[in-house]
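thought: user wants a sequence for this fold. calling inverse folding tool.
action: design(structure=
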């Protein structure tokens, strides 16, 4: 199966997942409304880490500091070039995912679950610019997924932890009744799509080791398998 066909099938499966989620959006939102205070406090703690600024502010500051040190101490410029590019890549991908999400929120104008629960408003409305109508897609999930993928490219050994963190952040948005299930699924798809597209561009520039990380992981699996086979023969 070609890469393009595989990507198309994944996108189609993702779209189907979003459409299927619409059928259970409101029942899930209703169930979340009865959760105990402790669960909600935990969800608020987890959801805080999904803010784009949690990643953007530190990475932005580090890039500026790195560039300043490189200018002040030219002898360190060569050593700092790689780390600066990696950190800048994180900033660029998360920022791009956040901007894409902001645009789609305005386009779809979906009312938040808490509005529906209060009997105020529900559904989609074209070009509604308000926090109350910014449910679709989930911004926290979008940026968290994008961040998880770029961190996974840079630190492959921690990829499952990064992805788990993104998943928990997405679930926290549902628990707090600020997003529907379909909002979170759409946000995850959007974040992954932006991360892969922008990541490939940055990879061509030599800023990100997406392919290198994948090859390293593949070679590691092959080497481990070869080692086990050798052990059995011995």
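)
observation: tool returned 234 residues.
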């Amino acid at each position: 199966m070609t890469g393009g066909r595989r990507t198309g099938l994944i996108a189609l499966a993702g779209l189907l997942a979003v459409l299927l989620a619409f059928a259970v959006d409101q029942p899930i939102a209703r169930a979340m409304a009865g959760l105990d205070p402790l669960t909600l406090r935990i969800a608020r703690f987890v959801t805080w880490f999904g803010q784009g600024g949690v990643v953007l502010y530190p990475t932005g500051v580090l890039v500026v500091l790195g560039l300043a040190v490189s200018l002040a101490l030219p002898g360190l410029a060569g050593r700092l070039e790689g780390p600066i590019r990696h950190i800048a890549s994180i900033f660029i991908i998360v920022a791009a995912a956040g901007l894409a999400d902001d645009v789609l929120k305005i386009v779809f104008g979906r009312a938040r679950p808490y509005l529906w629960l209060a009997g105020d408003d529900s559904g989609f409305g074209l070009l509604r610019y308000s926090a109350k109508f910014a449910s679709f897609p989930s911004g926290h999930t979008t940026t968290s997924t994008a961040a998880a993928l770029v961190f996974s490219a840079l630190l492959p050994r921690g990829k499952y932890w990064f992805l788990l963190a993104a998943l928990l952040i997405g679930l926290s948005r549902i628990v707090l009744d600020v997003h529907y299930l379909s909002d979170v699924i759409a946000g995850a798809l959007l974040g992954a799509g932006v991360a892969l597209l922008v990541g490939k561009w940055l990879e061509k520039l030599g800023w990100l080791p997406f392919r290198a990380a994948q090859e390293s992981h593949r070679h590691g699996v092959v080497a481990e398998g070869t080692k086990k086979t050798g052990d059995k023969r011995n």
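thought: summarizing for user.
answer: Here is the designed sequence. Residues 42-217 form a domain with the Vanadium-containing Chloroperoxidase; domain 1 fold (CATH 1.20.144).
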